[in-house]
Amino acid sequence: VTRATTAARAAAAVSAERLQALFHSISEVGAYGRAADGRHGCERLAFSEEAHIAHQLFAEAARETGLTVRRDRIGNTFARLGPADRETAPVLTGSHLDTVAAGGCFDGAAGVVCSLEAVRAVSLAFRESGAALPRPLEVVAWANEEGARFPPAMMGSAVYAGSLPIEAALSATDSEGISVRDALAARAPGEGTQPLLPPASYLELHIEQGVELEAAGVPVAVVDGVQAQLAGDWRMIGREAHAGATPMERRRDALLGAAALITEVSGIAHAHPPGVATVGKSVAFPGSRNTVPGLVEATIDLRHPEERAVRTMAADFIRAGEACAAQCGLSFEFTERWRSPRVTFSPHLVDLCSRAADAAGIPALRLFSAAGHDAVNLAPITPAAMLFVPSTGGVSHHPEEFTEMNALVQGARVLSATLALLLG
Ligand SMILES: [Zn+2]
Fold this sequence. Notes:
Blueprint: H1 3-12, H2 16-27, E1 31-32, E2 41-42, H3 49-64, E3 68-71, E4 77-81, E5 91-96, H4 109-128, E6 137-142, H5 155-161, H6 166-171, H7 180-187, E7 201-207, H8 212-216, E8 220-226, E9 228-237, E10 241-242, H9 254-270, E11 276-278, E12 282-285, E13 291-292, E14 295-304, H10 307-327, E15 331-340, E16 343-344, H11 347-360, E17 364-369, H12 375-378, E18 384-389, H13 405-423
Parallel strand pairs: 5-6, 5-7, 7-18, 8-17
Antiparallel strand pairs: 1-2, 3-4, 4-6, 8-16, 8-18, 9-14, 9-15, 10-13, 11-14, 12-14
Helix pairs in contact: 1-4, 1-13, 2-4, 4-13, 9-10, 11-13
The chain binds zinc ion.
């Protein structure tokens, strides 16, 4: 039996029914905003009751499929097919089960569900070919990919990969001062084991969260890498004053300076195509109708495929912030929150994904990812690659986030074929 035959068998063994059943049961956890057609959003903030239940549903489905489940100290759930020895590194595949506040059902969960079904299909294909699995296959549901409640984003995979110390992760707090340690202890007391071996390779299927696949009418993309990102917080500091009694020339209106800066942000991105820049949050204080705002606290998110361009955009932004502050008699403060480098995935693995799509008879594009993913944290420690499936209208982090079930099935087939080629 040739490798391509086993890969084609692995692709064909993917069950649309099983995939759909698990996806729907996980989608019900944290469901909100149900529309007339039954579609809805999902809210499962990291380390919440909902996220915990989703991890449990995944664990149950994995056990039913014959996998062995364990959880590590940061709350990542691993499900392994094959022996739990310390000699043979597993091939790891997965994604995350947490969502942003008021998010969609597909971001993250699509990859976890497709990974479990792909692993099941690969084991069937090997059995059919009369061969034993040469190394364990492991499916992972990462904890806290979004960082929506507890920054930083991609926390679970960063701890796993060793780029974030476990103590730092456990000490991270949400806006109410609750720590990751306390949130974890409230739901899974006493659990948590150390990882076994680093994986032999890592694959992640994810929704595109962009429009290129839909525009091309192609069900799957093989991802070459992820663009660089810089996230920061900034403040405009002025002075609160009476909205009636303070003449215009005596004001130090923080919101006026912030507004001037926000209007410059799109220009900064346009000056560095295809860079993007976003002020996602800004809050004026004291937030009173009859008081000149004395303080604005806001965020900035800068991304570009080239790291150097992100640094230039950040420098341009800080310069613009200082200029806008000076014009309005304010002071400007900037704090870098995190920086994720441009990631280029393993050319060998990317090539294997393309060949797997061929073996499965499924057309696939090549793309560069606009969003960060857990695969970014895995890439420095093991060969990593990603597959994308289409996002209808490019919508994500929104209740209308949607991917056709057929596209998910096609994605799982390519993933399954890739795993088979990797093992073969
Ligand atoms: Zn995601």
